[in-house]
Amino acid sequence: MTLPPYSTRPTLRVDLAQVKANYEALKALTPRAKVAASVKADAYGLGVEAVGRALYGTGCRIFFVATAGEGKMLRDAIGPNGAIYVLNGPAPRDKGTLLGAKLKPVISSMDQARYWAEVSREVNDPPYTAIHIDTGMNRLGLSELEVKALAHEKDLFRAIKPDWVMSHLACSSITDHPMNAQQLVSFKRLAAALPETPLSLANTAGIYLGKNYHFQMVRPGIGLYGGKATDRPD
Predict the structure, then answer these.
(1) Is the pLDDT of residue 126 over 80?
(2) In terms of Cα–Cα distance, which of 134, 106, 127, 114 is closest to 191?
(3) Of 58, 146, 160, 186, which residue is 20 to 30 A from 154 by alpha carbon distance?
């Protein structure tokens, strides 16, 4: 059988200039907040290394990935500067990668908090962390009882050195969904139990919900790549 002189595999061409333009457009909507970039799942399948370099080149300095392995790839791509947070959090198998690539684990349970406190006491200058509170997404995050426990264990809170407290909106793509307001109230109430730390709640769709959702940092994902994130993008 004679093979065709061309590949039959599909080809995806990514316009990195447009990715950068999307970042700038979202940044213009949130002038008082830092704009991080969610580049998990290999930058939504577009390539975390190329996308990460492009976003870094346009001024992005905070990134969120899913796994430590992704974080290591991104670190190699953008260099030693820039904060890279790992949403899956710390685990013993990833200890070397987290420390070696200076990745910041996102703490989503008291078990993770206690583990990372142990690691932090073993090394000099351990990476800071972010604390993830579950306000209704029911995917990752400390429960209300765990937030109260962490607030009570002040030595543990100091040991994990959080520089952000965050949560994730479940229904923000539907602007008038009642869950949005419920999560906003829950986030403010639970975050208030922790020592004063900058806050982050909004994904791409959350940005369009207005400045009450922006806090000190927003974390767009799908909107960076041209995907539809909200029913009211005006």
Answers:
(1) yes
(2) 134
(3) 186
Cα distance between residue 26 and residue 220, in whole Å:
8
pLDDT for residue 44: 94
- Candidates 146, 124, 121; CA nearest to 133 is 146
Instruction: Give the position of tokens 């420390």.
Output: 99
Q: Quote the percentage of the chain above a pLDDT of 70.
A: 96
Q: What's the token pair of residue 13?
A: 């061409």
> Would you say residue 57 has pLDDT above 90?
yes
Q: With a cut of 90, say whether residue 230 has pLDDT above it.
A: no
Residue among 69, 75, 67 at smallest CA distance from 49: 75
Residue 83 to residue 98: CA distance in whole angstroms: 12
pLDDT at 40 over 90: yes
DSSP string, 129-182: EEEEB-SS--SSSB-HHHHHHHHH-HHHHHHH-EEEEE---SSTTSTT-HHHHH
Residue 100 has which token pair?
């070696």
| Radius of gyration in angstroms for the set of CA atoms belonging to the chain, rounded to a whole number | 19
Place of tokens 């994902």: 221
Exposure on the CB side of residue 99, measured as CA atoms within 13 A: 15
- Dump pLDDT digits (tens) for 143-160: 999 999 999 999 999 999
